[in-house]
Recover the amino acids of this structure.
C-alpha cells in the first residue's frame, strides 16, 4: 500500500518513512503543502499522514482541498500543538485521526492500521499482473495461485512497480522508495533485485527500458 507523508521536518518524515517501509508499505514524502496537495490529488494512495504546520500551504487547507475534490483516502493529522480547537478544526475538515508530536512510532503504526482496516472495503488490497498477485494485507505473492517466497526488498520493489503499472520507473526512484535512509545500496543493487525477481516470477513481467528504468506493462501477462 502507498502511504503519502506530508511533513516539512525531514528527520521526522524520514523516520516515519523508514518505519512504514519496514512494515511493507510504500512511503512517499512531500515536504510542503502545495506538493502534498498535488501528490494527493493526482496519485493513488491508501492513506496520508499530514502535518498541520506546513510551508506554502497549511495542512488543514490541504485536507479541505482534498475533500472538496472528492479525495477520500484516510488522513491522519500531525501537530505540535495539543489544543482541542485545532483537533476540532481538523476533524471538521475531514481528518480521520489526529496525533500530537512527539509520538511513539508504534502508536502511529497501530492507528494507521486501524484506519486502513476501516477503509479496506473501498481500497484495492490485491495488485495483479497476469497470473501474478501481490496481497498487500497478507504480504504475500503468488503466481497461478502458488506462493512465491521473496525478501522484503523484493516485495517492496515489486509493490512499487505494480502501483506504477504502465509507467517507467527510474532506478533512482526505486532505490529512494525501497531502501532505508541510512542504507547506501551498490550502484547495481536494483538490477540485482530485478534479476532475482525475474528468476522467481518469469522473465517477461518486468521490462527494462535502457537508459530510463523498469516497468510492468499495463497488459502484462
Amino acid at each position: 500500500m502507498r502511504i503519502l507523508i506530508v511533513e516539512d521536518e525531514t528527520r521526522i518524515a524520514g523516520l516515519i518513512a523508514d518505519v512504514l517501509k519496514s512494515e511493507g508499505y510504500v512511503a512517499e514524502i512531500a515536504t510542503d503543502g502545495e506538493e502534498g496537495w498535488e501528490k494527493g490529488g493526482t496519485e493513488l494512495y491508501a492513506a496520508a499522514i499530514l502535518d498541520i504546520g506546513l510551508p506554502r500551504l497549511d495542512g488543514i487547507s490541504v485536507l479541505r482541498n482534498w475533500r472538496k475534490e472528492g479525495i477520500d483516502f484516510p488522513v491522519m493529522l500531525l501537530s505540535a500543538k495539543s489544543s482541542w480547537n485545532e483537533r476540532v478544526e481538523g476533524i471538521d475538515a475531514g481528518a480521520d485521526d489526529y496525533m500530537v508530536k512527539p509520538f511513539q512510532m508504534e502508536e502511529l503504526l497501530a492507528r494507521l492500521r486501524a484506519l486502513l482496516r476501516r477503509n479496506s472495503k473501498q481500497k484495492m488490497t490485491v495488485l495483479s499482473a497476469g497470473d501474478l498477485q501481490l496481497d498487500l494485507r497478507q504480504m504475500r505473492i503468488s503466481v497461478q495461485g502458488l506462493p512465491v517466497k521473496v525478501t522484503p526488498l523484493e516485495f517492496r520493489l515489486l509493490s512499487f512497480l505494480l502501483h506504477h503499472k504502465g509507467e517507467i520507473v527510474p532506478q533512482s526512484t526505486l532505490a529512494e522508495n525501497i531502501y532505508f535512509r541510512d542504507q547506501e545500496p551498490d550502484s547495481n543493487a536494483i538490477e540485482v533485485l530485478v534479476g532475482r525477481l525475474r528468476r522467481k516470477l518469469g522473465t517477461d513481467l518486468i521490462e527494462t527500458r535502457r537508459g530510463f528504468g523498469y516497468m510492468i506493462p499495463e497488459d502484462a501477462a
